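Researcher: Please predict.
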Amino acid sequence: MKLMVPLSIQHMFAMFGASVLVPFMFGINPAIVLLTNGIGTLLFILITKGKAPAYLGSSFAFLAPAGLVIDKWGYSYALGGFVVVGLCGCLLAFIIYKFGTKWIDIVLPPAAMGPVVALIGLELAGSAASNAGILATTSYNIVDQAKGLYEQVVTPVAMNNMIVFLITLGVAVFGNVLFRKFFAVIPILIAIVVGYIAAIIFGVIDMATIQEAIATPIFTLPEFQLPHFDPQAILIILPVILVIASEHIGHQVVTSKIVGRDLLKNPGLHRSLFADNFSTMLSGLVGSVPTTTYGENIGVMAMTKVYSVRVIGGAAVLSILCSFIGPMSALINTIPGPVIGGISFLLYGMIGTSGIRILVDSKVDYGKSRNLTLTSVVFVTGLSGAAVQLGNVELKGMVLACIVGMILSLLFYIFDKLKLTNDREEEQSAENPEK
């Protein structure tokens, strides 16, 4: 119990950088997001009977379609789309409740699920480096169009950003290996504190910004909005249901591997999916952004090996408090990109490693053509940059890889039932060597 507060603070800091980025991009005050994320997480814990540790943060899946709706109709109409998507997700959870989860082993066997889960972390790796400000940008200046000459200009990485990033990452990495007792379970929190101090020393954080945050009124109220519903706006956002369903299943699988329990069966995918989408629906009703189970917090659990739902609940309560305490939320908002990027660098990698762990634990046999093909195609689809446009929703990365993996797995299952697969005979021979 004495570690609950620092562990909860660690989880809140882990989600904060990404979670407040979404409301900034939508042009709304992040205080309402901190409030609904906290409430949504507590509801998730309640609905899943305290058996599934997960923190609900702001979903990035809605950015593109919601941006189109906001530009044309305004944010309140995007809220209507969030509510409908959340409602459809709740209906999907009811279907899963009626028909069970055995179909998951058919449409996403370990050879497909492993790389899909790995992609959750791997495709976020670039965003960690981008948030840290350690990516050099390259541009080309045309010197003589007729001759086709150009000059390549590389914008160097700010040295101060790199130093703060390396200090933060170094404390997180070596702390995870070297810290003992009390410090062994809060390496991320320690890394954030040390990184923040380094950011002040090297001038990454302006002291005027900190003073301005401290001067914020003690008590502030989040800004609430009501949704408006328009069929066209809803249809633009609705296809995102494919993205968030795939993302949720992937997160629950990787969390199951981390905690050592099958969360798809107990408390059940229907409960966690319902809770996730009910939170999104509630957020849309009061003016916030959609929610999703957060990879950053999954990474924290993988690193610290602390899977307590109470700790997650503590982080949710702290998030709710921050939404009303002006200086606290403002100060947390001053945590710079190099610090957030430093801890994300490690956390995202751990999520990717969890996908590889699925392949190892499931003892996937790559002597079988179907397994080798599934894993290969899923990885290449997710990492190639390939994209498919469905209306105003773009499917790419992990989501597209998941859909491709599901289609291939289903086809292979049908081929197997029809006795058309060329590795079926090998399987039967292994089972009946006397034949």
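Model: Residues 75-99 form the longest helix (25 residues).
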